[in-house]
TrEMBL record:
Protein origin, superkingdom: Bacteria
Region Disordered: start-end pairs: 337-356
Coiled-coil region(s): none
GO biological process: methylation
UniProt cross-references to SUPFAM superfamilies, sorted A to Z: S-adenosyl-L-methionine-dependent methyltransferases
Keywords: Methyltransferase, Transferase
Natural source organism: Saccharothrix yanglingensis
N(4)-bis(aminopropyl)spermidine synthase C-terminal domain mapped to chain residues: 110-286
InterPro entries noted in UniProt: BpsA_C, DNA_methylase_N6_adenine_CS, rRNA_MeTrfase/Polyamine_Synth, SAM-dependent_MTases_sf
Protein name listed in UniProt: Methyltransferase
Sample GO molecular function, one term: methyltransferase activity
One Pfam family, short name: BpsA_C
Length: 519
């Protein structure tokens, strides 16, 4: 019989055939794309494709859509679920929050495009709202602080739409995302604060030990999950009372990958209070059924996070398999690094800006060949010497166009004069050469900005005040400087942060205010 391959496939799956039976029901009900056949029942793409192959000529196809041919649908009636599925209580709540769902759909439609190099896969709007409803129904959020470690799914906006009395902090490496969340939060009056960080190099001091709850959808490699979970524990104000909420998914065809991740989490001392299967759904990630589980983790201690490799993702130059630049590229970087004639060539450094970089050195050579976009600016801000060279991808957003080059130069122009050596030393790379700008060439406003850039790791309010005093050669007192800062930005929360931790759009808005306050 034509149905025998399907019967055999279901028998092979044994007790785990229910997902495939749901696929059969979908095919019998209507046309569906392959993406829907994967996401709705949370079945890996390869498994769905095996079922489609087994059905064979009994399928109708139209472009990328599939259905059981009406003439054969009755032959497969016994292969469906044959009963009611359990109702997801939080899924059922979605129908009572249609206004929030519409807003989330609109937000996702306009969110900056996902970056494959950062393993961005967009969660569905229903998932973002479901997360918010689950959090609000599980925890007493009013007056509490929720930290989102990465937020391309816009969970922060969804949570505040459900409970506007919660304070949310979003920490992300993607400056585009931080600007987008800032804009949306300001429009709606949500208490959301955004901070920039790459978790491989540490968390900003302002978010350490501050959160009641931490939510994250990390890269699904063991290295990525361990890093993000470790940073989440560092961010909890009280590990005994706090909870770490993680998304993670793996294919039922490769359980060993799931085991490696769970072992990494257990090494961090995390107890799994609950694992809610297929809680999160995605527009993509078909290899894992476009679904991921929700891990509810309780820390048993605060353990130090081991220094992370930069290779924690599954795609691109920062993937676990990435090999980095060749020796010739690094040699060219060193040769192009500007330095005094009496100084030896600098050794290539790895990325990182948790602290000022290169104190006491005459020049820096920094390998940023895996830079997803923000590393170059942060490295310039963290550079202690007045000279450096950086190796970046040739398609880096700050070097690939005149607009990008001018944008970067405008931010650091009071400290560095930049040269962009495209396709150097090869077609994949660019060397950015930064040479010092002499203080004597700057006016008072430029000097004040320069002082803030030089001390990018100090608390901004203090650094700005001292910069005004220094730039005026003492003509402005500390009290007058504080008054000028208050006139410029009031009691902005940014004054408590470090410049290096601010999202890029707020740095760009702030520097002209600093220069203007010195006039």
């Amino acid at each position: 019989m034509a149905t025998e391959p399907v019967r055999a496939l279901l028998a092979e799956r044994g007790a785990h055939a229910r997902g495939l039976r749901r696929v059969v029901d979908l095919l019998a009900d209507d046309w569906h794309t392959l993406a829907e056949l994967v996401r709705l029942p949370a079945v890996p793409r390869r498994t769905v494709q095996e079922l489609l192959t087994a059905i064979g000529d009994d399928l109708d196809t139209s472009g990328d859509r599939y259905r059981l041919a009406p003439a054969h649908a009755a032959d497969y009636a016994g292969f469906g679920v044959g009963g009611d599925d359990l109702v997801d209580p939080f899924g059922a709540l979605l129908s009572r929050h249609t206004a929030q769902l519409r807003a989330i759909l609109a937000d996702i439609a306009d969110v900056p495009p996902p970056l494959a190099a950062l393993d961005h896969v967009q969660a569905t709007a229903e998932t973002a709202l479901k997360r918010a409803l689950w959090l609000d129904n599980t925890y007493d959020l009013a007056g509490r602080t929720l930290l989102c470690l990465g937020d391309h799914d816009l969970t922060s906006l969804a949570v505040c739409s459900v409970n506007p009395d919660v304070s949310v902090v979003v920490v992300d490496v993607d400056d585009r995302l931080l600007e987008y969340v800032d804009e949306r939060a300001a429009e709606r009056g949500f208490a959301i604060r955004t901070v920039h960080a790459d978790f491989r190099f540490g968390l900003p001091p302002a978010v350490l030990e501050t959160a009641d709850l931490v939510f994250s959808d990390p890269p699904y490699t063991p290295e990525g999950m361990a890093l993000f979970a470790g940073r989440a524990v560092e961010a909890l104000a009280d590990p005994g009372r706090g909870r770490v909420l993680l998304a993670h998914g793996f294919s039922d065809r490769t359980p060993a990958l799931g085991l490696k991740v769970q072992q990494e989490l257990q090494r961090l001392g995390l107890v799994f209070e609950a694992i809610l299967p297929a809680f999160h759904r995605f527009d993509g990630a078909q290899a894992i059924g476009s679904a991921a589980d929700l891990y509810v983790c309780r820390p048993t201690s605060r353990r130090p996070v081991a220094p992370a490799r930069t290779s924690i993702y599954t795609h691109g130059p920062q993937s676990v398999e990435a090999s980095g630049p060749g020796s010739k590229a690094l040699e060219a970087l060193v040769d192009l690094a500007p330095r005094p004639e009496s100084s030896p060539p600098p050794r290539p450094r790895q990325p990182g800006w948790a602290e000022p970089v290169g104190k006491g050195a005459a020049s820096l050579a920094v390998d940023l060949s895996g830079d997803p976009g923000p590393w170059l600016l942060r490295t310039l801000l963290a550079c202690s010497p007045g000279r450096m060279a950086a190796l970046v991808p040739n398609n880096h957003p700050d070097v690939a166009s005149e607009k990008g080059q001018k944008g970067l130069a405008s931010l650091v122009g009071t400290r560095f004069a930049l040269r962009f050596l495209r396709s150097t030393p090869d077609g994949k790379h660019c060397v950015v050469v930064a040479d010092q700008v002499l203080a004597g060439t700057l006016d008072t406003g430029g000097l004040a900005v320069r002082e803030v850039l030089v001390r990018a790791h100090g608390k901004l309010g203090n650094v700005w005040r001292e910069a005004l005093v220094t730039a005026s050669r003492g003509a402005v007192t500390k009290r007058e400087a504080r008054q000028r800062i208050d006139e410029a930005v009031g009691d902005s929360d940014d004054l408590e942060l470090r410049l290096v931790d601010l999202p890029r759009h707020r740095i760009a808005a702030l520097l002209p205010l600093i220069g203007g306050s010195a006039g």
